[in-house]
Amino acid sequence: MPQPRFVPLDDFREYPQSEMIARAQSFYEEIKRRRTVRDFSDRPVPLEIIEACLRAAGTAPNGANLQPWHFTVVQDPVIKQKIRAAAEIEEAEFYDGKAPQAWLDALAPLGTDANKPFLETAPYLIVIFSKSHEISDEGTTVKHYYASESVGIATGFLIAALHHAGLATLTHTPSPMKFLNEILQRPSNERPFVLLVVGYPANDARVPAITKKPLSEIADFR
Ligand code: IYR
Hints:
This protein is α+β, with helices and mostly antiparallel strands and 222 residues long. The chain has a single domain (37-201), classed as NADH Oxidase. 40% of the residues lie in helices and 16% in strands. A four-stranded antiparallel beta sheet has the order 1-2-6-5. The termini are far apart. The protein binds 3-iodo-tyrosine. 3-iodo-tyrosine is lined by residues 91, 94, 107, 110, 112, 172-174.
């Protein structure tokens, strides 16, 4: 059993309370501007930005620090075309019968349909895979703990990092997403978690007129 090894927490920063309040408020102001976008521009985005945001995602807290994620960044138009074609088949089935009416009703305010042109227009598709386990170089299986929770947190970090960098995102989850393993040749211990569409919004991008619940509805204090 390896012994734990500790180092000093050198990077923690303490701020005066007035600054803490200002920082908390300004982060809220910044993150609340984030909107899920479905009208993307094909304007190119330097890969360096995506790499830095992925590094940020990779710092997420996670089960036993086993880091049960894999990010596949797709720029290749041929691969994007394959992903769009496969996703639109799933989506057509979803919208034309598979989805219960209650689900379609819940989606109605978003104005979504089976057409997913953004899968080809946006400069990047980032497919986030959740890994149930890892096969070590010696061939032993290492189980991952809280993989979904961990990958969810990393995805949140990634979305926040991309927004902070000045990019728009769309969390897209065609269901089922197994086709992504085939197209991207990822192993069977990896399950597609979310397909993140990344780029600049189109000049004329519009977003649904929807609101977020107030604090009093999402939290209680006792
Ligand atoms: N995957 C479909 C349907 C969809 C489902 C949910 I939950 C959303 O928040 C949005 C869409 C689609 O992408 O259109």
